[in-house]
Amino acid sequence: MTSISQNLGQAYSEQLPSLGQSLCDILCFFGLKRLYGVGGDFVANLINALDGPLQVLPSSNEMHAGFSACAQAELTGLGACLTTYTVGSLPCVSAAALARTEGLPVIFLSGAPGENEIHGHALHHTVHPGSGWHTDLNAALNAFKALGIRAERLQGQRHQGQPNVAAARFFELVCEAVQTRQPVYIEVPRDLVRQPTQSLRLPQDLDELNATTRLDLAGAGLIADDICSRLVRARHPLVYLGERLRMNTALLQRIVHFCQRLGLPYATSWFAKGMVDESHPLCMGAYNGVFSQCRGQAYIEANVDYVLEFGTAIYDSDTNNAFASGTHAIDTHPNKTLLKGTARWELDLQAVMDALEMANLPIRNLALFNQDKDLFEALAPDTLSPLGYANLAEAINQFQRAAGKDFILVPEVGNALFAAFALEARGSDVGRSFLANPWYAAMGTSLPYARAIADELNAKGSPQPILLLTGDGGFNFQCNELINLQKQNANLIILYMRNNVFHLGKCGDAPIYACNDLRFDVAKLIGAYGGEYHQCQSVDRLYEALEVATRGGLHLIEVPTSTEPEQQSPIAIKLNTYISAKNGNPEALISWNTLCGNLPPTDAQ
User: By 3-state DSSP, what share of the chain in percent is helix, strand and coil, each rounded to 5?
Assistant: First the structure.
């Protein structure tokens, strides 16, 4: 058989890189600095190839590795996790579903059996029963494909005289993830890692790569002219920012600067919370209909006469649109310009912004939009009152303002998440100050998310504290990830709301709701990981604990939490009332109609 050197020359053959080296070069080109994962035999060669140019960091399990990669994508524009064949990659399916739903470019990278190992017998880790007639090597590939995710196994040489094109295909798959903001799943046969692959001449930078796909979109100037005429006529305008801007930091900054330059008030959707500093005088907070708890709610619902909406979802989610309750004033506003951003990289929105920035628009008086700000910020709780979900957000907001400490907020799914929507998301050294996944709502993500945030803060040399809010159910989902936070020396505060049950959505007293035991000693647990324990039952004790905790290190603050309805957060009370009304409870229906000004609950779409 003809070898590569015989066919294409010795000089060409000698300069061919290994596939492992090319994978490193490609990931580094896209700005990736670290991967999260769990080792295994089929991925060992890949770990050895990537470790050094990249940080290959351990996670306590594969699902957590995937969740950390999702947070990494939120912060840096690309995340990656690394696992072994099937027994490692299949546990990542939940994280992959989260990435697909949230629109996150995450590379799920898995080792696989070598091409020289594929014979008639079943390999270990193969999803295959002993009574089966046919082996199935594609179980993980098919599982990821079932989620609508591009999933491929790289291929080696198909002719002895030609190097494989596995690196080129890997580059194309990562390009697709970054440019479409969607996850991809890639299996790498372990015998290919050291084999030569076709040389690639990578673009000089991402701008050069993106320039090849840039389109000239006609008509943007006409859209901008119409927006300008409506802005000039409007007495009380609002710019509404959606979640599609989370992954386009440059465009987001342009829009916010445009608003601040002209004195235009702006708000975000719930799914976009944390991508702007809500303490700015022009920011009205995160709005979501009757479930809102932001200072701009009254202005939005009573005064706004024109809405300029940027980058909201193509297909609206009930969670993000007041749970389809019909109370979202922006959804039904009669005078609105809706700019979804349907082009790749939101090039259509960029073209409209190009024209808007050149327009001669009037500068507005900031005082007109801040009539409710002082009233909203004055809602500080009584420092001697018992602490619970009902006043948790007010207490934390007051601490941030008084102490001048800006937290990066990471709520866990459950009651903590709905209480957290009333938190003021402020400035952040990593560009985001609130990270959650309310759309897909995967429980057990907050500690893996905090892990990725801590790594990014460490890379930037920032001591900014992370405040994680969790119930005891969510905490017990994931507390094994504390070992890696201990290794990181992370500045993390865990606010542990304890009531020993899965409370949100509880509809009975079955044992399945019992998520904890009265004898569980969380103080000993956090101490084992080098953390400091605090217990708070009042607002003033919370302030004392936060003051100590913001000095650095790992801290857990336990808050005994009542399950009585009146002790829940205002948003959770409204949500529970709405759910009960939808289920036909007469008393809840009356309460709901009172909340909404006699608007009956509409059927969810």
Answer: 45, 15, 40
3-state SS class at 584: coil
**What is the torsional sign of CA 178, 179, 184, 188?**
negative
Which of 409, 403, 408, 414 is CA-nearest to residue 428? 408
Instruction: Give pLDDT tens digits for 41-59.
Output: 999 999 999 999 999 999 9
- Amino acid occupying residue 213: T
Using alpha carbons only, give the angle 451, 407, 566 rounded to the nearest 5 degrees: 105
Check the CA dihedral 96-100-104-110 and report its sign. Answer: positive
Q: How far apart are CA 179 and CA 175, in angstroms?
A: 6
**DSSP state, residue 17:** P
Residue 53's SS3 state is: coil
Distance CA 109, CA 153 (A): 10
Poorest-confidence range of 39-43, 375-379, 421-425? 375-379
DSSP structure class, residue 599: P
Q: For 549, which DSSP code?
A: H
How far is the C-alpha of 426 from the C-alpha of 409, rounded, in Å? 9
Separation of alpha carbons 206 and 378, rounded Å: 46
Amino acid at 175: C
8 Å CB contact between 482 and 84: no
Task: For residue 508, give the DSSP letter.
Answer: S
Angle at 438 between CA 267 and CA 440, to 5 degrees: 135
DSSP state at residue 357: H
Q: In this structure, are residues 41 and 65 in contact, taking their beta carbons and an 8 Å threshold?
A: no
Q: How far apart are alpha carbons 579 and 601 in whole angstroms?
A: 9
- For 523-538, what is each residue's pLDDT tens digit? 999 999 999 999 999 9
Strands annotated E in 456-535: 466-471, 492-498, 532-535
Residue 207 tokens, joined:
């701008």
C-beta separation of 425 from 451 below 8 A: no
77 CB neighbour count, 10 Å cutoff: 18
The residue among 401, 392, 398, 426 whose CA lies nearest residue 274 is: 426
Nearest-5° angle of CA 289, CA 290, CA 296?
A: 65
**Helix/strand/coil for 490:** coil
Edge-to-edge, what's the strand order for the sheet holding 184-189?
55-58, 34-37, 79-83, 106-112, 184-189, 150-153
Q: Look up residue 279 and give its two tokens.
A: 């303490």
Q: What is the pTM of this model?
A: 0.91
